[in-house]
Amino acid sequence: MKAEPILVVRHVSKSFGNCQVLDDVSFSLSRGEMVGLIGASGSGKSTLIRTIAALTPIDREKDKGAPCSIHLFDQAIQKNGCVTRAAAGLRSRVGVVFQQFNLVPRLSLLMNVCLGLLGRMSVIPATFGYFTQDQKVSAMTALKRVGIAEHALKRGSQLSGGQQQRAAIARTLVQNAEIIIADEPIASLDPSSARRVMDILADLNKRDNITVLVSLHQVEYAMRYCPRTIALKGGKIIYDGPSSALTPEFLSALY
Ligand code: ADP
Ligand code: MG
Question: So which residues are the signal peptide here (predicted)?
Answer without folding.
Answer: none
